[in-house]
Predict the 3D structure of the following.
Amino acid sequence: MVMSARTQARRNELRANLLALSEACPFDHSNPADCPLFKLRKIKPRERVQWFHALDENDLVYLTTYHHICLTTKVESRAARCFC
């Protein structure tokens, strides 16, 4: 199957974002045990890249969406605690 340039660019962008997330949680720079990338963060960077390249677009979108929602929830929760 031939992939369009736009589709390939989207996959590359998703992988780049997720590779950054594979270093640590952007909220507090930790590795929360309930994160889907918890185990991945414990392996070597080269193996992480290989793992991400094996994912299809649906998996990449899922992980990106999960992290966006999780970060938004944590930020909003922190803001709500500050206003109490």
Summary: The chain is about 60% helix and 0% strand. The chain has a mean pLDDT of 89. The longest helix spans residues 57-82.
